[in-house]
Amino acid sequence: MDAIGELLTSMAELLARVEQPLDTSALTEDLAERRRAEQGRTVATVRDALARIRGDAPAWQIPAELEATNPAVKAMSRSVR
């Protein structure tokens, strides 16, 4: 796999991790809300980066497992909700 393929794979793995729900049960409501907002910004940033990298990469550089799930389309569709 080349550098672009590795970057796409790493970004997809990062997106899967940052999308995990936060456990805010031990936090005050104010702090929990700030953590959720921060997570939302992080998820949006990672989705955007993944979509941009995927959109600019030639088809032959996109790993087969990412092409099958097409994270760029998924990321872009979530950003327009």
Q: What is the fold's blueprint, element by element?
A:
Elements: H1 3-18, H2 29-56, H3 64-69, H4 71-79
Q: Roughly what is the average pLDDT, rounded to an integer?
A: 85
Rg estimate, integer Å: 15 Å
Share of residues in helices: over 70%
By DSSP (H or I, 4+ residues per run), the number of helices equals 4
Succession of helices and strands: HHHH
The shape is elongated
Instruction: Give the uncertain stretches in residue-range form.
Output: none
**Residue fraction in strands:** under 5%
- Class of secondary structure makeup: mainly alpha
What's the total count of β strands? 0
Write out key terms for the chains shown:
single chain, 81 residues, mainly alpha, 73% helix
Task: Write up this protein.
With 81 residues, the protein is mainly α. Helix content is 73%, strand content 0%. The protein has four helices and no strands. The chain is elongated.
Short description:
The chain is mainly alpha-helical and 81 residues long.
